[in-house]
Every structure is written in C-alpha cells, then in structure tokens.
Specification:
4 domains, Rossmann fold, binds adenosine-5'-diphosphate, 43% helix, 15% strand, alpha/beta, elongated, binds magnesium ion, 7-stranded parallel β-sheet
Length: 595
C-alpha cells in the first residue's frame, strides 16, 4: 500500500498521482487529506509556499464531488488570475481519470460570457478570483447557493490584496452548512479574523512554524552604497550565470527602469508591473515560464501570481516597507522541495530592517560581500570552459573544417584553448579587471562569527573548486552535506558553498586543506571522478589582501580611484553589457526585446 493509498484516496486519484510522479505525500497533505476525507469539518491549514497545498485540498475535494450531479459543489477562491489558472490545471491533472468532472476557472481580464458558457456546460468545481466571482454572482451567471465546500487558498495574500469585502459578499451567497477550508502561508490577524467570522470550530493544522519563511531558502544580505544598487545587481547576476530569478523593486517606476537597464546591458530581463496591459503581462510571464527571461523585475503586487517552481534566486533590489511582504517575496524561491536563495541589497542605514526580518522569519541572514571583479572573472571562466565541454557538436560544421584547420594549423592545443577561452573571457576581464569594490566598509555586524562573505577577513580560509554542481543534483545544502560526509568534517567546517551549474566553490579553514585534497585524489562518485582543486581566488580574499597589504584599510578609496569617476564607470557598464553579454545571450535565442 502506498502512502497515498493509506490516506484513503480512491483508485482514480491514485492513478493520477502515479502519473504525476508524486511518490510520497507532503506533510500538509499527510495531515489534511485524512481529516478532509473522513469528516465534514472546517479546517485552517498553515503551510509555507511550495509545500503542496493545492493537492492537500484538491485530492479530497475531487473525491467528495458527486459527479452524477452537475450542480456546483466546490468553490475555490484564490488571489490572482495566475494562481487561479494554476490550480485549475492542477485539479484537471488530478481528476484526469474521473469521468464527468468539470472544473472551470473564473478570473478577470478574459471574456465573461465565455466563462459563463463554460459554467453552463457543467462545473462541479469553480476556481475563481474574488473580483470576477463577485461580478458573476451579481450578473447571476453563476449559482453557488448549493456548494458543499468552499476553499480559501492563499488567504493571507487575498486579504493583503484587499479582497476582504469581496470574500464576505461571496460567502453570503453560499449555504451555512458548507465546509470551509482555509489555506494560508502565514497567519496575520486578518486571517484569524476570517477564520473566526466565517468558520465553525475549525480544526487547525500547521506545518513548520507559524509565520516562518520557507526553510530551504538561504537568506543573504549585501551592504552597498545607495547608488551602487544597480552595479551590485549586475555583479550578482554575473556571478550566477544560470540565474533564474525574480527581482523585486518598490515602485512601478523603479521596476521598469531596472528592467530596461538590464535589457540595455544585454541581460535577458523583463518587467512585470501594474502599468503594463494584461496582454503585456501575459507575454512577460510566458517568456519567464519558458525561461526565455532569466531575470523578471517585478513589483510586489504584480508578482503575487508568480507560481514558477524553479526560481533559483529572489533578489530584493530594495527592501519592502512591510516585513510580511518579505516572506512573500522569498517564498517565490525554494519551492517544491528545491533550495533557493533570497538576496537583499541594502544600504547601511537599512540594516535594522534585516534584524526585524530575522525576528519575523526566525532565520538568520548571512552577511555576504558583492563579488569582486576578479571573482566574477574566475566564475565566468569556469562557466565558459564547462559550456564548451557540454556544447553539442553541430555536424554541419564538418564541411568547413578543412579550411578552419588550415587557418589554425600552427596553433597547438594549449594555445588554442587559451585563445578560445580568451575570446569571451577578455571582455569580462577588461570590464571587471579594475572595477572597484562595491561593498561598504563594514555592516556593523561583528557578532556573526564566521565570515560568509566572499572576501573579508577570512585570511585562514581556503577556497576550492569542485567539478560538480546543480547539473549533478546538488544545491548548497546537499553539497555541504556531501562534503561533510565524504571528508568526515564537522558541522561548520565547510562554508561559503556556491553551487553553479556544473561546478561549485566552497571554503574550509586552511588546516583541513590537506585532508580535503587527499580525500579527492582519485575519488569516484557514480563512476565519475570528483575533482577538487584549490581555487586561485580564495573567495576574493587574495586580491583584497594583496591590496590591503600595500594600502591598509584605505582600500575603498584606492579602489574607487582606480576605476575613475562614477560617470566613466557608468559608461563602461553599458558598453560592457552590449559587447560581453548581449552577443552571447541573445545568440542563445533568448528573446528579451518583447516591449
Ligand atoms: P503551495 O500551494 O503550497 O505553494 P503547490 O500546491 O503549488 O504548493 O505545490 C508546489 C509543487 O509541488 C507543485 O509543482 C506540485 O505539483 C508539487 N507537489 C505537490 N505535492 C507533491 C508531492 N506529494 N510530491 C511531489 N511533488 C508535489
Ligand atoms: Mg498554492
């Protein structure tokens, strides 16, 4: 008996679950499904984003629907059109072996008559946004007077978006004896009020701690000068060549501006905010979902609907006013059991906000340093080498080979490699070679013990390169675990783990270098050599240390001096972007010019 079977789910659902490839129920599913299947009860379920809440209510709801009747029996309210469609699609997958079950999505920005027609054809389940739902009730295009189940999904977000009155109106059109199931990531006062007002003795289940952020998200902050936010953002992107991220700005104007600058600098970026038409927003979201856009710059309101599983980084270009909002932002990554990173670019005066967020999410931030130019060059170099290694050979190149061989006949292999790599590397190098350090001197945060940043005072630590990365199924947590187990190290011995696509970096204290290198001599994992080398660049430490040896603590000034004034810097940014990035990114066929 599978774990899903043990929860009491019927055959057609179990078959669909097998097709979906779900092996075990998630915690919220394990807790909610038996309760909902076995009793008619109200329920409040608190679980973080990405924990599988849709199935937690979707499976029991589908099983409880009477498909012999065409009456609407279940209503799911969700905050945005995106989520509404997402839930509808999921429910359709869950109920694929269920004959005669109609699920219809009701949301704004699409034809109301078409939606009404779909309901007429039979919709035992309606998934709706509150605004459009209210509209349809008023126009008598839908009848929810006989529903048995009402589900409030992402209740906290619905209330955040000001849907309280709409929800109240909608619920007043439903029968008293229905069951109400409320699902939410957080439990602010407004949500408990809803629970009190509209529910009868709800059972309560909580997964993880209340109000906690997603725990497989690592939170990091980077302290920079107010005017360095944009160059800092670029460096963060350049250090993570395979980034797939949402970048949050506070205003629509900033959102548009940052997206435009990124596009101008050759990144595959797009803007998502309320001043765009629905059509424009759909275009951006579609490109993002297909990963044609690597960096989606968004406002909080516009991003509420984003439900994409593979987001690697959330970047807070500016911190939100409300701490609660930070939870929603960081919840966009680390979904579906994956790990993610939430980065915050802050100025020194905003540091106390970090403290308040830490209190709220019950998780510590890592203080990190914006990578130096040299570090970025190194990462890009390894990335390039791996890209060349993994590139599929285009056989059509064959017929040109004699001529090409002729041109290159006097270049030996070593030289050829150097030249190939230099083609792209030189552009990064020329740009970053002399750029200044963007980190402000000190975040005033001495109490954290270990320096997790790249650089800083970690003179005793050694940085390593290892030839496994995300492609091999690692993230920063699992790679750390792998290293600890393989080498036999303690909890805090491995730090600054940076996992890239096909390789990674990590640090240890110099005392264990020997042990590390010995372990990884001829070590095979799954039939493949895992290779560890001491990185030329100990987390940016070397370059900085060399500099400070001659310049002492005054290296900020020196750095700035060496790159000239701000104006020149800016100009360099742009030309760098066009030459180094737009070429190679666009040639991959990634479209970013959809405006
Ligand atoms: P939430 O609503 O809690 O944010 P979702 O219901 O959207 O989370 O689920 C997040 C992802 O996890 C979806 O891609 C979903 O298909 C997947 N998922 C849900 N339940 C399971 C499971 N038991 N096993 C594997 N994946 C699951
Ligand atoms: Mg959900």
């Amino acid at each position: 008996m599978t774990k899903f079977e043990a929860l009491g789910l019927n055959k057609s659902l179990l078959n669909a679950i097998t097709d979906l490839g779900f092996e075990n129920p998630s915690e919220v599913q394990e807790k909610a499904i038996p309760i909902l299947l076995n009793s008619e009860t109200d329920l409040v379920a608190l679980a973080q984003t990405g924990t599988g809440k849709t199935a937690a209510f979707g499976f029991p709801l589908i099983q409880k629907i009477d498909t012999n009747s065409r009456t609407t029996q279940g209503l799911i309210l969700s905050p945005t059109r995106e989520l509404c469609l997402q839930i509808t699609n999921e429910l359709k997958l869950y109920s694929k072996y269920e004959k005669n079950l109609g699920t219809v999505a009701i949301y704004g920005g699409a034809s109301i008559t078409e939606q009404a027609r779909q309901i007429k054809r039979g919709a035992q389940i309606i998934v709706a946004t509150p605004g459009r739902m209210k509209d349809m009730i008023n126009r008598r295009l839908v009848d929810i007077s006989k529903i048995d189940y009402c589900i409030l999904d992402e209740a906290d977000e619905m209330l955040n978006m000001g849907f309280f009155e709409d929800i109240k109106d909608i619920l007043s059109n439903t029968p008293d004896e229905k069951s109400t199931w409320l699902f939410s990531a957080t439990m602010p006062r407004e949500v408990s009020q809803i629970a009190k007002k509209f529910m009868h003795n709800p059972q309560e289940i909580t997964v993880g701690t209340k109000n906690a952020g997603t725990s497989n998200v690592q939170h990091e902050y980077y302290v920079v000068g107010g005017r360095d936010r944009y160059p800092a953002l670029k460096r963060l992107a350049d250090t993570n060549p395979d980034i797939f991220s949402v970048i949050f700005c506070r205003t629509k104007r900033d959102t548009q501006r940052v997206a435009e600058k990124l596009i101008e600098d050759g990144y595959s970026a797009g803007a998502l905010h309320g001043d765009l038409s629905q059509n424009q927003r759909d275009l951006v979201m579609n490109s993002f979902r297909k990963k044609q856009i690597q960096m989606l710059v968004a406002t909080d309101v516009a991003a509420r609907g984003i439900d994409v599983d593979d987001i690697t980084h959330v970047i807070n270009y500016q911190l939100p006013d409300e701490i609660e909002t930070y939870t929603h932002r960081s919840g966009r990554t680390g979904r579906a059991g994956k790990s993610g990173i939430s980065m915050v670019i802050v100025t020194r005066s905003e540091m106390r906000k970090i403290k308040s967020i830490e209190n709220k999410i019950q998780q510590k931030f890592l203080s990190k340093k914006i990578p130096t130019g040299i570090e970025i060059c190194e990462i890009q170099l390894y990335h390039l080498a791996n890209k060349i290694k993994d590139t599929e050979i285009n056989e059509d190149v064959e017929s040109y080979l004699p001529a090409i061989n002729d041109v290159l006949k006097d270049v030996d292999r070593d030289e050829l490699i150097k030249k190939i790599v230099s083609v792209e590397f030189t552009r990064f190098y020329n740009y970053y070679n002399k750029t200044r350090d963007l980190n402000t001197a000190d975040s005033g945060d001495h109490g954290r013990g270990r320096d997790y940043g790249s650089g800083g005072s970690n003179s005793g630590s050694v940085r390593y390169f290892i030839n496994v990365g995300e492609k091999d199924g690692y993230d920063w947590m699992s790679l750390k675990d792998f290293l600890k187990e393989t080498v036999g190290l303690g909890k805090d011995d491995v730090f600054k783990v940076d996992v890239k696509d096909s390789f990674s970096f990590f640090n240890t204290e110099a005392a264990i270098t020997e042990k590390i290198l010995t372990t990884f001599t001829d070590l095979k994992v799954d039939g493949r050599f895992v290779n560890v080398e001491v990185s030329k660049n100990p987390g940016g430490g070397r370059g900085r240390r060399e500099r400070s040896r001659s310049g002492g603590r005054g290296n900020r000034g020196r750095d700035r001096g060496s790159s000239g004034n701000g104006g020149r810097n800016k100009r360099r940014d742009r030309s760098y972007g066009k030459s180094a990035n737009s070429g190679n990114r666009r040639s991959k066929g990634k479209k970013s010019d959809f405006f």
